[in-house]
Specification:
The structure holds two protein chains of two kinds. By secondary structure, chain A is an all-alpha fold. Chain A has helices at about 15-25, 30-55, 60-65, 65-70, 85-115, 125-130, 130-145, 150-170, 175-190, 200-215, 220-245, 260-285, 290-305, 305-315, 320, 330-355, 360-365, 370-385, 390-400, 415-420, 430-460; strands spanning about 75, 80. Chain A has 21 helices and two strands. The longest helix of chain B is centred in the last third of the chain and has 16 residues, at about 190-205. The chains are: A mainly alpha, B alpha/beta.
């Protein structure tokens, strides 16, 4: 018996780099040929790219106009230099990111500890690995500038983010998330001011908070829902009244441009199109025919129309529907992109809903859960998890589609190139360089989105399947 | 018609005479197909009724009508005094009091075992978290897998999953539990652990209707065995009568094929 020792562990996979190369790159004659040929092609392309980036490229067009790329035609010439608002906005967004991450990590840890599971901590190195493409973009931008202020701003943003992360971990319940949402509102308010419809974001955030808080106090059933709606309406009205006392004019977002505008458009369209798309998907599966038809008609019409058409319609027809002509171009573009993306999100979500086995709904029903509870607690969490890849794909595609808003007179990240090459000194120089820079910028953000989606899938898939 | 035969009278309950489920003249069609034909059946409190029959005979449809996973077309179903109607609240009330265990377990894969069990008590009965969890752990103890509480369904074996499903159903403290072929999707070596759990439940006095192919279980645990074929109740009797002295030709044929 002594001869048969049963190993408790599978054999260790120890292969040296040399063995790996042999096994994966040169395991047969044809394999070796493919490796060599592709290797040569890559080496050549790499060499050309290296030469372009570091030797032949005329990067002055990008260097001189870096601020233009970041904020577009935003007012920044003395005596009306408003750039400080953008800086504060960036710091507030960094703070919001820290607050969200901190609150999220605290919540995850609480949950894991309650379940007696091991707590995995996020390390700074892990963060760098997750967002390396964006970090690279920031480093490249910094390398173009020879003043110290931008570096200080970046370091400041990191410091604010870290501080907020630590702070959010100490806050109880979901207060960290609320603080994060308020920081986003603050960031927006710094640039937008308080005039006009600027009260809406704050009302949205505090309305959601009021809804949640009220949920624990009111009775169940229709009366409770009515009371909650009442609380939300009162909150919104109070905020509107408070805002009406401050008619603080800052820089409206119709003056935004560059990366600032691109990111704003993409973020707003993502945040708004997700819930709308979700509701559309549910409506399309509704048992009430009128609701089902409306959703179907909406989805099919929107999906049958090019985004450019919708953007134009936003310019010419939105006032017709809403009866107001004082809506800014940016708002119109956001509305058009939101409505467009929502239709696609709806179909993606519907796919997820349909893929879920019927037994899940039946189990919920058999336990006595109400239809809305079954949907919220059982069906949606599983359906949405299943469609993360295609959903993020849609958002990535939408992120890049923001470049289309140039046709309605907005100067987003790509459109800045027209401003640059309209200047006499850059009329004939640096076209390729500015294009490469813009492409790199888009790639940096979309790649991070794609990585985050994989990350999210992994996280939500823990322990299942 | 065989359904008029005295052996097919499923309305004579065993025990005290306290009726828990009363099905009268119930019919169900799928399009043109007559799936259930004038079913009359009563189940008494604390009674265990086992429904057997060839596949496609309407066994599953019958119990799925009781908690309205399928809608019957005419006739009445009364569960513990509540008449099943199209009123959503009515359906909810019956579902709260009627547990169901499925062939495919249907655990919620995105929730831990503990959350699977506490979800309905907390959401439907508004029981506080701590109390619901204490009860859940008690139930897991009863189905003999307390150590799995914080795992996810995908990490458990089929037999363990089905026992969790039973615990999840019991967490609602139902008055009746409907079993829809609970062991059919299990590997043979796991069938026994689930049947043992069901037997424990029966001996504790739970009212149960089990659709199953486990004749051993029917023989040992059932108060009455109901044999269905082609959407009707063909023969009803005590297990003793049923397995030793079946009267109807269709019953005899079925038993000769499976025993």
């Amino acid at each position: 018996m002594a001869a048969t020792t049963v190993s408790a562990m599978p054999p260790a996979n120890e292969s040296s780099p040399g063995q790996w190369v042999k096994k994966n790159l040169f395991n047969s004659t044809s394999g070796s040929i493919v490796t060599v040929v592709l290797g040569l092609i890559s080496a050549y392309l790499g060499y050309r790219l290296f030469r372009f980036v570091f030797i032949t490229g005329q990067w002055t067009a990008v260097k001189t106009n870096l601020t233009l790329f970041l904020v577009g035609p935003y007012p920044r010439v003395e005596p009306n230099n408003q750039l400080w608002r953008v800086v504060i906005q960036a710091l507030a967004i960094a703070g919001a990111a820290g607050l969200f991450a901190g609150a999220n990590s605290a919540a995850t840890e609480r949950k894991a500890r309650a379940a007696g599971l091991e707590v995995t901590k996020e390390t700074p190195l892990g963060l760098v690995r997750r967002f390396w493409s964006i970090i690279l973009f920031v480093v490249v931008c910094l390398s173009f500038i020879h003043t110290v202020t931008p570096l200080l701003i970046v370091l400041g943003a990191i410091a604010v983010g870290v501080a907020c992360f630590a702070g959010a971990r100490l806050l109880p319940g979901n207060l960290g998330f609320v603080a994060g949402a308020l920081a986003v509102v603050g960031a927006y308010q710094t640039v937008i001011g308080t005039a006009g419809a600027a009260w809406i974001p704050a009302a949205l955030v505090l309305g959601v908070v009021a809804w949640q808080r009220a949920g624990k106090l009111v009775p169940a059933g229709l009366a409770g829902v009515a009371m909650k709606v009442g609380v939300v309406v009162v909150t919104a009205v109070v905020i509107k009244v408070i805002y009406s006392f401050f008619d603080y004019q800052a820089v409206g977002w119709e003056k935004w441009g560059g990366l600032l505008l691109t990111l704003t458009l993409a973020a707003c369209a993502t945040v708004f199109s997700f819930p709308i798309g979700l509701l559309l998907a549910l409506a399309r599966r509704s048992e009430l025919p009128v609701i089902r038809w409306m959703a179907t008609i909406y989805i099919e019409i929107i999906r049958g129309v090019p985004l450019i058409t919708l953007l134009f319609m936003g310019q010419f027809l939105l006032g017709f529907f809403i009866g107001s002509t004082s809506i800014s171009n940016v708002t119109r573009a956001i509305v058009a992109m939101t409505l467009f993306t929502a239709a696609y999100v709806a179909e993606i979500v519907r796919g997820g809903l349909q893929a879920l086995p019927k037994g899940q709904t039946e189990a919920g029903q058999a336990l006595g859960l109400a239809p809305t509870q079954t949907m919220r607690l059982i069906v949606l969490p599983q359906a949405l998890r299943a469609v993360i890849p295609s959903m993020v794909g849609q958002f990535i595609s939408m992120f890049k589609d923001t470049s289309l808003v140039f046709i309605v007179g907005l100067t987003e990240f790509l459109g800045v190139r027209d401003l640059i090459h309209g200047q006499p000194e850059f009329r004939a120089v640096g076209h390729a360089e500015t294009l490469v820079f813009v492409a790199f910028g888009y790639w940096a953000f979309t790649f991070a989105m794609s990585r985050e989606s994989q990350n999210l899938e992994r996280k939500l898939g823990v322990g299942t399947r | 018609m065989t359904s008029t035969s005295v052996f097919a009278d499923a309305t004579k309950i065993a025990g005290t005479g306290d009726v828990m489920i009363d099905i009268e003249n119930m019919n169900k069609w799928y399009g043109e197909f007559h799936a259930l034909k004038s079913i009359n059946m009563k189940v008494g409190r604390q009674e265990v009724v086992v429904v057997i029959g060839p596949s496609g005979s309407g066994k599953s449809t019958l119990i799925r009508c009781i908690n309205r996973l399928e809608e019957h077309n005419d006739g009445t179903i009364v569960v513990d005094g509540v008449v099943l109607s199209n009123d959503v609240r009515n359906i909810q009330e019956i579902r709260r009091e009627t547990g169901m265990v499925f062939q495919g377990f249907n655990l919620f894969p995105h929730l831990t075992i503990l959350d699977n069990i506490t979800l309905a008590p907390r959401q439907v009965r508004r029981i506080p978290k701590a109390e619901a969890e204490a009860h859940a752990l008690e139930l897991l103890e009863r189905v003999k897998i307390p150590e799995q509480a914080n795992k996810f369904p995908g990490q458990l074996s089929g037999g363990q999953q089905q026992r969790v499903a039973i615990a999840r159903t019991l967490a609602m403290r139902p008055k009746v539990v409907l079993f829809d072929e609970p062991t059919s999707a299990l590997d043979p070596e796991m069938v026994k652990e689930v049947l043992d759990t069901m037997q424990d439940l029966a001996s504790e006095g739970m009212t149960m209707i089990c659709v199953t192919h486990e004749m051993g279980f029917a023989r040992e645990v059932a108060d009455r065995v109901v044999f269905m074929a082609d959407g009707e109740i063909v023969e009803v009797g005590t297990p003793e009568h049923f397995f030793t002295n079946p009267q109807e030709a269709r019953t005899q044929l079925f038993l000769s094929q499976i025993l």
